[in-house]
What does this fold into?
Amino acid sequence: MLFTPTENIKLVLSGDVSSQKPDGYGWAVAGVVKTQRADYRQFDAIIKDLGYELPYKSAFERKIDLDTQSKADNKLGGVALNADIKIEREH
It folds into this structure.
């Protein structure tokens, strides 16, 4: 919406909203780095304890291993108000 109360003031109000509900998409692990957590809480140790092994050696193989539907629903949106104000100075 554009609101111009005077010729020197222009206000623009804008907004957007998006709802994303992917159905069945998976994500490959692109890489794992060591964190500051204890060794037993590192990614490789956790999946080893669970008896799990990544189904690929490189994220570029595009292999996924899901036994459930993805629940990565996102509701995104925002609002912005921009003010353009001309200030005239007397000389």
Observations:
- The first helix runs from residue 43 to 49.
